[in-house]
Amino acid sequence: MNKANNTLSDKAGPIRNRIKKLDALRGFALLGVCMANYKELTLYAFYDVGHTVNVEADRSDTIANFLLYLLVDGKFYTIFSVLFGIGFSIIIGNAMQRGANGMRIFYRRMLLLLGFGFAHLMLLWSGDILMLYATMGMLLPFFWNCSDKTILRWAAFFLCLPIFSSTIAYVFNLNPCSWFYRQMDYWQNRFGIGDWGEWLHDRQSYTDLLKFLIMGAFERMTEFISSDRYFKVLGLFLVGLWIGKKRIYADITAHRRLLTNTMKIGFAIGTPFAILHAYDCITGFHLIPPIHTIVETFSIYPLGWAYMATFAIYSSRMEGLFSYPGKMALTCYISQSAIAVMLFYGVGFGWGMQMSLPQVILTSVGIFLFQAVCARLWLRIFTYGPLEWTWRMLTYGAWLPLRKEKMK
Fold first, then answer.
1. Residues 374/378/384/386 CA torsion (nearest 10 deg)
2. What residues does 382 pair with on adjacent strands?
3. For 319-362, how does the pLDDT look when each residue is reduced to its tens digit (9 = 90+)?
4. Using CA atoms, how far apart are residues 216 and 275, in angstroms rounded to an integer?
């Protein structure tokens, strides 16, 4: 019996030989995600048009908004999604080396991630991405035995599919979100939710926040469906799977030419499309949906991949800053929402709806740096982040010591 338990514990044991570059890249992605999400988490996104008090403030907000769309919007979730696919390849590869059933382990992880995401969505913030990752992640094993070319073909298919989908919806005037919109309206009317920002800012009862989150869950589904996010995420997962199977991350020097070309081509293609995309977004989305989707596709993915390649080549001096929160990505991602709710919502200090957009961006950077410091201090003592520890133990069904000195 003890032997069996020891075997299970060994398979679930501490992660050795982590790739620091991947941890750092994951931390870098967390910074971008925090900058993108805090526009809504600080309740800035719920301001009425013309909320600012003077022309200079309006101008600074417009410039900051343009820069967010140009440099941040979509690029960092692209990085996160590619890293997810790389992580899948590592999990399966490590499990095969240990003689474990890698697919079973992976599906357990996805079911648990689905649970984390559901709790995040229904208890903290309506902008959760984890449930989508878990759901789409469950499709990855079907591509494990495909050749490299086949994986890339499927990735290209899913990444371009939203262009076709948005064209069909536009031409035939289809609205695949209609049921979710009706549900959203039903719950909004039932709970008497008026202005969303005022509700979140003024209501001091956590019960009122839960009411909003029920409605918000349906609103989140409309975002995923209207933007075909599930196709995009799966396509990016497959790009990550291809990178993982080629083990490009394991030897940056040997793949420097590929990374350099990715960086140059990504910036060359992505930058002009990103400028057009940002201009369209801040001026009221004048492009028809199919054209907007094309512009978005050729701005977000190339720039996201260019960011990854640039970081892989030139980030050596920054790895110390980003690798610690990258090792605790799940904990940091969810705690970003928890911190925001505590600081900016009515159930907390109620500091939301009081900042300009440049202040929102600086606040998000400050919160990420705070997390980076906390992660570094935590990982001096402990082997895993608290949610990563819980996730790993539940995956393997074995108790894992948390403090470093207790590890064998």
1. -70
2. 403
3. 989 999 999 999 999 999 999 999 999 999 999 998 999 999 99
4. 30
By 3-state DSSP, what share of the chain in percent is helix, strand and coil, each rounded to 5? 80, 0, 20
CB 316 within 8 A of CB 322: no
* pLDDT score of 407: 46
| Residue 95 CA, distance from chain mean position | 25
- Please give the structure tokens belonging to residue 356: 């300009």
Runs of H (alpha helix) within 288-356 = 289-314, 319-327, 329-344
The CA distances from residue 302 to 268, 297, 306, 320, 383, in Å, are 9, 8, 6, 26, 35
Contact at 8 Å (CB) between 260 and 160?
A: no
Residue-level pLDDT at 51: 46
Contact indicator for 377, 79 with CB cutoff of 8 Å: no
DSSP string, 172-224: TT--TTHHHHHHHHHHHHHHT--SHHHHHHH---HHHHHHHHHHHHHHHHHHH
Q: Phi/psi zone of residue 407: left (φ > 0), alpha (ψ -120 to 50 degrees), beta?
A: beta
* Contact between residue 381 and residue 403 where contact means Cβ atoms under 8 Å apart: yes
Structure tokens at 338: 């928890």
Residue with tokens 């590890």: 407
C-beta of residue 209 within 8 angstroms of C-beta of residue 200:
yes
* Least confident range of 24-38, 57-71, 221-235, 361-375: 57-71
**Helix (H/G/I), strand (E/B), else coil: 403:** strand
The sign of the dihedral angle between the CA atoms of 262, 83, 38, 110 is positive
| Among the listed residues 23, 24, 64, the one whose alpha carbon sits nearest the alpha carbon of residue 42 | 64
**Residues linked to residue 403 through DSSP beta bridges, in sequence order:** 382
- Per DSSP, the residues of 344-402 read HSTTTT---S---HHHHHHHHHHHHHHHHHHHHHHHHHBSS-HHHHHHHHHHHTS----
Per-residue pLDDT of 214-259, as tens digits, reads 999 999 999 999 999 999 999 999 999 999 999 999 899 999 999 9
pLDDT in tens, 376-395: 999 999 999 999 999 999 99
Are the CB atoms for 352 and 344 separated by under 8 Å? yes
Q: Is the dihedral of CA 265, 274, 161, 26 positive or negative?
A: positive
The confidence score (pLDDT) of residue 408 equals 47
